[in-house]
Each structure stands twice: as structure tokens, then as C-alpha cells.
Amino acid sequence: MAVRQSSNRPLPTVPESELNATVPALAAALAVGLVVGLERGWRNRELPEGGRVAGLRTFALIGLLGGALAVPGLPDLWAGVGLAGVALLFAVSWQPSASAAGSLSITTAIAALATFALGALAARGHAVVALAAAVVVALLLDLKEELHGWLRLMQPEELNAVLQLGVLSAVILPLLPDEGYGPYNAINPFKLWLAVILVAALSLLGRVASRLRGEQQGLLWVGLLGGLASSTAASLSLSRVARTEPRLGLPASAAIVAASGVMFLRMAVVISALEPALAPRLGGYLVVLGITTFGAAALLWRRRDRGDDATVPAQARLFDLGTAVGFGVALGVIAVLVRAGKEGLGDAGIFAVAFLSGLADVDAIVISAVQMHAQEELGAAATATAILLAALANMVVKGGMAWTIAGRGVGRRVAAAFGAVACVGVAAAALASLIAR
Questions:
Q1: Any transmembrane segments, and where (predicted)?
Q2: Domain shared by 79 and 199, yes or no
């Protein structure tokens, strides 16, 4: 009987190039599981051994499994079957644990599916994206109490505002053309709507920050946070408080001045975002004015009666789509007027429009002037002059409101503070001019 001789053929080996690519991919998939598992394991660390559905080791294995089944060269079906298997395992284990704990939460199961998918993504050559997403998943899981607390604090109109902001930015904005229309090609729908979103987001940010800080932080917070949305509206509200509660005249005066300080910084941010070339000089100049204004507000604040507990007045109504569209229309009209003034009267026409626009709001003229500079229709000096004229007009209006609504005492303090800021502004401009020579 012949005996079969053993073959001398070498065992099959994995090409070094494939090995060099596969090992880091699997390591990244394992890291994805460890990141998510770290949070899940820590949260359930007090449970007895075997009392938790999945912890650090389970999530690490899920991430590694996702990576192993998605290694390039394997059929895509394998990863799909693996994902379905993980879902089935959690479905089977979830029912008894949920019944025992009286909980309907499936967060851990969803996190496991996300971990498997991210492990597969890492194996397909997107390790950095997968790891970043795993960190986000772990962070969302860790912030459970904070997120639920914010939801409990959120009022219906605030949820409405968040959803409306989503409509403005994610639904309407992508549909708008990014080119000029109308008289002088002055109306750019995309940029006008982008400005609407910017102002609306600042308004929402001010409201949310105020809610998180609480309603008993004093009038100063109304000025600081209200200035993010509209320093004019904040000044009007504060002036009314000072009229009804004369003992709050000093803190109200400080808050009105502080709102203008926020206005200067907000203008600097908008200019830097829309036209970075103007940021070093004009943006820096506005920052100096903002710091000076805050200094004046601080001096007034220190003189207040510290025994008074200034309560925050009712917050202004949050923006809605009608308000946002109205701002966009006003911005378009101002853009046309600015270009018409430029055509008819040169820079002098723009300056007149800037001053008149600043009587109501500075955002529209700032955006229009900056966009004209970006299109090389307005020089840097003329742009700066128009913006500063708008700011000056706006301060005049707020000082007038303080005087006529809150009374002489508040009006004098606000006027003195604004006068000091104007003097510093003139001195800074003169110094910059001398240095430029």
C-alpha cells in the first residue's frame, strides 16, 4: 500500500502590503470600540458582574468585529450580516434587562450598532473620521444629564426658534443663487440670507446664554447678552426698566453702555467673517472702541448700590421667519440705496445712507459696505467711514432713548460714556493717521 508523501509546498502567506494596511485598520476599529466602551463601562460600573448588557470589553469586540468584517477584499454582505447579528443579539438581551430595570431605553443598543459601523468605516480607510465620530458618540452618551436638563429648561418658543434657524440654514440657504440681481446687481440672495442666518443665530445665542445663566444675574447680563442680538432693543428694554424702577438707574446705565460694547465687538466679528482683509485695521479699531466702552460701563457699574438686586426684565421675543425675512428685505433695500448713493453722489451718498441706516440698526449697513469692499466697489477708507458713521448714529439713538425714556440721570450717564468713547475713537483714528504717514 503506497503511502502518500507530504507535500513540500509552502503554506500560503499574506502579502506584506495587505498586512501593513490591515493591521492599522483593525487597530483603529478596536480603538473605536474602546472609546465608546469606556463611557458605557464607566456609566454602568456600579452594576454587578453580568448585570450589564455591554461594557468596555464588549464594545471593544464589537468595534473589532465591524473592522474585521469590512476589511477590503471581503464581500460587503459580510458587514451587513454582522450588523444584523449585533442588532439581534442586543434585541434578545435587551428584553429581560429592560423588564427587570423597568426601562425602555435602547441607547446602549444604538451605540453598539454605531460602534460596529464606525469600526467598519475605520477598516475601509477612514480611520480618522471613524475615531472622531466615536469620540462624538461617547460625548453624547456622557452628556445625558446635561442634555436632558437643557431639554427640561427649553421653552416652546425656544424650540421653535431652533427649528426655524434650521429651516433658514439647511432648507432655504442651499436653494438660493450666489450672484447679483436687481438694480446695480446689488441683491445677492445667498449672501443676504447668510446675513439673516448670522443675525438670527446671534439672537438665539443671546437668549440661550441668558437662560443658562439664570434670570437673576442682573441688568448687566441683559445688556451683554441682549447686545448680541440688538443693542438698540436691549437699550430700549433697559431704559424702560430704569423709568419704572428709578433705583436701578445706575446698573441700567452701565448695561446700556455695555450693550454698545458688545455691538462694537459684534461688528468686528461680522467684518472679520465676511472680509478678512479689513480685520487687521478696521476690526482692530472696533475692538479698541469695544474695550473702551466696556471700561466706561465698568466705571458706572462700580458706582451702583450693591444692595439692590436688579432683576432681569422679560426677554424680547425670539426671532421668527417673518422677522428674519423682514431683515433680509431691509438689507436688500439698503444694499440698493448704498450703490445708488455711490453712483449718484460718490462716497458722500454712501455716508448719508450709512448714517440714516445706523439710526435703526448697524448690521445691515456693515454687511452692505463690507460686501461692496469685497467686490472692489468701495475703498477701505470709505468702508471704514461708513461703518463708523453708522455706529455713531446708533449710539446717538441709544443715548436719546436713555434720556427721553429713562430720564435725565440715566441720559447724562450714557451720554457721558458715549462721549468718552467717541473721544477715544477720534484720538485713535488721528494716531493711526499719523503713524500711516
A1: 54-71, 77-94, 101-121, 189-206, 218-238, 250-270, 282-301, 321-338, 350-372, 378-397, 417-436
A2: no
* Identity of the amino acid at 131: L
Put residue 218 in one of left, alpha, beta given phi > 0 → left and psi -120 to 50 → alpha. left
Per-residue pLDDT reduced to its tens digit, 119-134:
999 988 888 999 999 9
Query: Considering the domain boundaries, does residue 274 fall inside one?
Result: yes
Q: Which pLDDT tens digit goes with each residue over 259-298?
A: 989 989 988 888 888 888 887 778 888 888 899 999 999 9
Cα four-point dihedral sign 182, 183, 184, 186: negative
Over the chain, what HEC string results? CCCCCCCCCCCCCCCHHHHHHHHHHHHHHHHHHHHHHHHHHHHCCCCCCCCCCCCHHHHHHHHHHHHHHCCCCCCHHHHHHHHHHHHHHHHHHHHHHHHHHCCCCCHHHHHHHHHHHHHHHHHCCCHHHHHHHHHHHHHHHHCHHHHHHHHHHCCHHHHHHHHHHHHHHHHHHHHCCCCCECHHHCECHHHHHHHHHHHHHHHHHHHHHHHHHCCCCCHHHHHHHHHHHCHHHHHHHHHHHHHHCHHHHHHHHHHHHHHHHHHHHHHHHHHHHHCHHHHHHHHHHHHHHHHHHHHHHHHHHHCCCCCCCCCCCCCCCCCCHHHHHHHHHHHHHHHHHHHHHHHHHCHHHHHHHHHHHHCCCCHHHHHHHHHHHHCCCCCHHHHHHHHHHHHHHHHHHHHHHHHHHHCHHHHHHHHHHHHHHHHHHHHHHHHHHHHHC
- The pLDDT score that the predictor gives to residue 115 is 93
In one-letter notation, the amino acid at residue 423 is C
Check whether residue 143 and residue 107 sit in a common domain. Answer: yes
Q: Cβ neighbours of residue 308 under 8 Å, at least 6 residues apart?
A: 247, 248, 251
Same-domain check for residues 195 and 137: no
Query: Which range marks the domain in which residue 183 is found?
Result: 155-436
